Predict the structure.
Amino acid sequence: MENILYLAHTDSDGSLPRVALETLTAARDLAVALGAPLTLGLFGAEVQTAANTIASVGATRILAATSPEFAQSRYATDAAAVEALCRAAQPTIVLVPATSRLARALPGAAHRLNGSVDTHITAISAGDSVTVTRWFYRQRIEGTLTRTARPWFLLLDSGSRPAYQGETLTAKIEEVPVTLPPVRTTVTGTRAPQSGQQTIRPDSKLLFVAGAGWTKKQADGQTHPADAEQLILGFLANSKASLGGSKSLVEQSGENQATLRFMTHLNQVGQTGATPRHPKGLSTCCHGEEPHVVGWRFINERRAVNLDANCGWARGKADVVYVADAFEVMRKVNALLAEKNAAVATQ
Ligand SMILES: Cc1cc2nc3c(=O)[nH]c(=O)nc-3n(C[C@H](O)[C@H](O)[C@H](O)COP(=O)(O)OP(=O)(O)OC[C@H]3O[C@@H](n4cnc5c(N)ncnc54)[C@H](O)[C@@H]3O)c2cc1C
């Protein structure tokens, strides 16, 4: 019989990241489908608060590895915590959220435990055998696979399950001792690639994409990067949209040209960029070429603003194309949004 272990770490505020709650839904469903016992394994500086919020899931055991060292993301200590929790639980299948910490530490820990590990899992089903679904080649090919090797570690991508929500109870925790390795790495701070405000908002309802057209010569024969910056940041502030960029635009910023300085490679959408998931998308000054639009496959409703009535978006890639100057359109949109936000604020 399978024995399921759910593994997660707490965030700095003691809560579980959203992807961890989504993974818990998958772990619970798998345990129910297999009629298998479910063990929860948490690690962090303090885990009781987080354990209380998920205790109602109906686990047979709740294991915890706690240490001030687990407050920080560090391969050596994260892998040691995973290893200790697994040795205590003796699982056959381990479900793990693909946070950056666990995506880094899990493969090494799985190797120490003689296990197999698969990443980017989006679905799990239990029939005669447990099968998992994952993407290959940047979400171009979807594959289904199964393994006989145990323990089998599965790193689940975010956005594929609803987050677990349950009654908060007082969890009965079993503390698992961890032999910490010599610690050489100390996290002294965080340097984020974006200089100013946070522009990537995975939970936003809208993806706003800026293309290289924002930095090109306009009708007056001049470039207007300062206007572009103000219009784009103004729209993000008003709408709380998430910012994406075309490859052409993010590469200009990387080369330190006087362009949109808040745009980094992390914003790039497309074949060699990200494939974000938002209900709606608005593309501006971007031509809509296939290597870019392939990153829009999970955007349900697509609109584009382009001066060129013959751009890629107009060829069946967008639901609506506004053939217009994006500088003018966004100036008007920002004014309307500011008016609307001001009206809401006075209510
Ligand atoms: C192997 C490979 C991988 C690639 N991967 C990616 C990827 O991951 N992501 C990606 O984005 N690209 C990728 N590309 C590049 C892609 O093919 C395009 O070159 C790129 O997307 C073009 O960016 P753009 O549309 O912003 O710029 P441009 O092609 O320069 O288009 C600018 C657009 O702005 C419009 N415009 C200008 N001024 C205005 C205005 N005032 N108002 C409205 N519209 C205006 C123009 O009409 C034009 O359509 C890849 C290419 C290759 C070969």
The first helix runs from residue 18 to 34.
